[in-house]
Amino acid sequence: MSEPGGTFALYMPREGVVVSRVRGHFTGAMARAWVDTIEPYFASGERFDTLHDWEAMVSFDAEARRLLTKWIVQRRGLVKSARFLAKPGIVSLGIATAGLATAVAGVELRVCGRREFDEALAHVVEARPGDETPAGFRPN
After folding, report:
1. Position 140 in a domain
2. What is the pLDDT averaged over residues 29-56?
3. Engineered SS bond to 26: which of 60, 69, 86, 136, CB 3.0-4.6 Å?
4. Strand order in the sheet with 17-26
């Protein structure tokens, strides 16, 4: 999805893995598209590792943060892990703020660096059902 000031992509490189990528500004409409696209998969009851490449995100609507936080809390039993690649600044602070609400529901939102993100992504894409996650990539 592309809007003035930002782009958003969501893909599933394999069963049980969701990856998002945001560049620029993340809008409430993008967050709604995220939920609308992924909800049918989560509604099936499958548990997911989620990885979010938000390193190039520069800002976000408060509506987007609220919508995704609420959705994660509602789907808490289906989120095995939630890892975010983000630079220090407003985006990392937004993830930390959302993380306060999701932690109460038992879902840790973890901001990590490029190396950990890439290693975790490679692991979950190559893993077979039942494989353990790597050290530092703890399922929720």
Report:
1. no
2. 89
3. 60
4. 2-3, 6-14, 17-26, 48-60, 79-85, 109-112
